[in-house]
Amino acid sequence: MDAVNRHGDGRFKPGHAIPGPGRPGLAELNKARQALSDAITPELISEAVGIMVEIMRTGKNRDRLTAIGMLLDRRFGPVSQSDVAASVEELETRITELLSAVRDGRKVNHE
User: Fold this and answer.
1) Alpha carbon of 33 to those of 27, 47, 53, 77: distances in Å?
2) Contact in structure between 13 and 5 (CB atoms under 8 Å)
3) pTM to 2 decimals?
4) 71 contacts 64 by C-beta, under 8 angstroms
5) Where does residue 55 rank: exposed (0-12), middle (13-18), buried (19+ CB within 10 A)?
6) Could you tell me the sign of the dihedral formed by the alpha carbons of 8, 12, 14, 17, in that order?
7) Are residues 30 and 74 in the same domain?
8) Residue 83 near residue 89, CB atoms below 8 Å
9) Is residue 86 in a domain?
10) Do 29 and 72 belong to one domain?
11) 10-25 tens-digit pLDDT
12) Interval 38-78: pLDDT, tens
């Protein structure tokens, strides 16, 4: 431990000049990401979407559902917790209204 640049508990003192190793492999990771980005052209993306649409239309049920989910997620984004919470709240309100109508003997509107 370098006592000149560190406090007694091992923390660095303000203004220390000892560079850390950084994140090992980050440069290689960035190169790989760039290569992947360069390889995926707009044409390739269109082809991939076309394949997903074809699977959605003609695949087995499980594959079709997966393709539909992928297409919707990529077009509209994945469903968030707040979306689910709002839907649950809406359903709870509607259920409360229906139960109240049934208890009061009122006609239930099935919208």
Assistant:
1) 10, 21, 27, 22
2) yes
3) 0.45
4) no
5) middle
6) positive
7) yes
8) no
9) yes
10) yes
11) 888 887 766 666 677 8
12) 999 999 989 999 998 999 899 999 999 999 988 888 888 88
Is 74 in the same domain as 92?
A: no
Residue 8 covered by a domain: no
For residue 89, what are the domain limits?
A: 79-111
In the chain, the number of structural domains is 2
Distances from the Cα of 4 to the Cα of 17, 19, 94, angstroms: 11, 14, 69
- Same domain membership, residue 83 and residue 71: no
Tokens representing residue 101 in the block: 């109508």
Say which DSSP state 6 is in.
B
30 and 62 inside one domain: yes
Cβ pair 47, 40 in contact under 8 A: no
**Residue 103 is assigned to a structural domain of this protein:** yes
